[in-house]
Amino acid sequence: VAMWIAVSLLCCLMLGGLRRAGGSCPSQCSCAFHSLSEGTKARTVLCNDPEMTLTPVNFPVDTSKLRIEKTAIRRVPGEAFHALHNLEYLWMPYNSLASLSGITFKGLRRLLELRLDGNDLISFPWETLADMPQLRLLDLHNNELTSIPPDAARYVKNITYLDLSSNKLMTLPQALISTWANLQAVPYFPNDNSKIILGLQDNPWACDCSLYEMVHFLNFQSPNIAFIEPRLKCFTPRSLAGVFFSQVELRKCQSPVVHTSVAKVKTILGSTVLLRCGTTGVPIPELSWRRADGAPLNGTVHQEISSDGMSWSILGLPVVSYLDSGEYICKAKNFLGATEAFISLIITDSESTDDPNSNAKGTWSGKASGMEAAAYNDKLVARYVITTSTMPTLGAGAGTGEGFLIPDGAQDSNPQNLLVSPPTGQQEPERIVRSVRVIGDTDQSVTLAWKAPLARNTTVFSVLYAVFGERDMRRINVEPGKTKVSIYGLLPKTKYIVCVCVKGLIPRKEQCIIFSTDEVASAGGTQKLINVVVISVACVIAVPLTLVVCCGALKRRCKKCFVRKPKEIQESYVTFESLSPGAKAKGVEGEYLTRHTPDESNRLLSARSSVDSEAIPKIEGQPNEYFC
Asked: Number of folded domains in the chain?
């Protein structure tokens, strides 16, 4: 009995070894053999039971092609394919796969095709491609992929057919685009003419700067690349939805740069301070403010974009107190990075915030360049539209020469970063003065005009002007109802700033203009030069002509006086008997031309036209007729 049992067990072990060596099909699957070009046979396994929920693990080891299609499988065990060292084709389309393990494809070093289309994959283990060095075709069509990591570029260099269409991709990493652009690979299909085939269509592409490299890659594609569908479309933003890549112009992404030239602001207690911070970058960075000491901000933030595309953030601090002193940090951030800038705010209790070391007139000698210069030119007059909280109105003390006081903070190179305004009770409710302009000027005077459609007949305007850069502004009060004034006593070749506002109110920056008398002087000198040149040319041309004409007239006059003409020439007349183009009747006395010399008649008269001569029959013996 013992011997029989031992023999039976040995037979079972041998039979199991044979079954594993040759292999048998798992349940719910079917197996078939197909012939190879060398005359050998390869096994194909097909599993397509719709009720299959688990992946079999006992596939025959000699399987060359495995197809698991249209099942309910949601995951693949890590060891499912480890024994399939001869597997060349793994097709798993239209299942319910939601994820794949990093060891799922380990050991498949002879795999040529991997088809995973029609599943629910939200990611793919790109690093597993290193375990499949022979892989040439990867089909991820119609999945739920939302992004591709930049490291994927390291593993797709051998892939010559990659289908990523019908996913949820919004952009592709730049490293992957560069890999495709420089790729020189052998085509997977023999008749592909050495082209790498890519499928990128039907994805919700976001046409912003992150897609710049991809759009450029498609519009100027390499001859080694072919697309399943080359006409890709934008999905977002809404303004570009449905637009082809070939029709969009995108900007390259740029890290944010903060522009603040005012590093220190000094103002008096109770003023309203506006701190400005600008930034450039692609996409437009987000600006935010915070205090260096972590204290909460006592103000409001306003965002705006200038005409040159620069984004500005304005931090308004109303009625500042000593607690508002300190360092303020402006931060610009986009997905490429973040930068910060610092502005120091100093609060004093003195009406004058001048530095004792500053000069008497407080002339502004700062210089701006680049982006700072652009901002400076845009709001040059802003630095003059400031006051202190202790100044009741501008109307007080008219004619005394009182002017605006400029804090030290405004003496930095960019006045756009600081606007200090008076208490809100002194603000102009509506902009009454508009369109201030220069309508006439000389090198020592200027005439201004403005529009005031909302002004009343009793409204009095104040005109404030000063040499540009000086602190003190002189004032001229305009009579009610007038919207024009002339300013005299200006210095030639000097730049001035002038503001027009309702008397008693603070002018706004749009109510101020800057003009220069050097332009007037230059224009006057140019006009004088033009006048001299024109007069000189006229003299050169006109004087000789005048002399010639006078000499001719004098010559003819003298000839008449000293030369006696023949009587018959002096008494020569032309008698017009008839001008009708008919023949003359016989017996008519008189001639067409009488008492003339032949030479004079030939000079003065022209022959009748040939048409008239043909229309009028000649009378025999009649001389030629002439018309005057």
From this structure: 3
Q: State the chain's maximal CA–CA distance in angstroms.
A: 180
The residues with which 516 forms a beta bridge, in sequence order, are 495
Looking at the structure, tell me whether residues 137 and 203 fall in a common domain.
yes
Q: Mean pLDDT for each consecutive 10-residue tract of the chain (628 residues)?
A: 66 45 69 64 87 86 91 88 91 93 90 95 93 94 94 90 95 89 58 75 93 86 84 91 90 90 86 91 91 90 84 91 92 92 88 43 38 41 38 33 34 38 43 82 84 82 84 82 86 86 81 77 58 73 79 78 51 41 44 45 42 42 45
- One domain for residues 243 and 333: no
Rounded to two decimals, what is the model's pTM? 0.49
227, 275: one domain: no
Q: Do 328 and 345 meet the contact criterion of CB atoms below 8 Å apart? A: yes
Rounded to 5°, angle at Cα 515 from 266 and 392? 40
Euclidean distance between CA atoms 413 and 406, whole angstroms: 14
Kindly state the DSSP code that residue 188 receives in the 8-state scheme.
S
Nearest by Cα to 388 from 324, 480, 471, 300: 471
Neighbour order of strands in the sheet with 41-47 = 30-35, 41-47, 63-68, 89-91, 113-115, 137-139, 161-163, 196-199, 225-227
Burial class (CB in 10 A: 0-12, 13-18, 19+), 442: middle
pLDDT of residue 289: 94
Q: Are residues 323 and 211 in the same domain?
A: no
Task: Measure Cα distances from 55 to 60, 75, 77, 442 in Å.
Answer: 14, 8, 7, 95
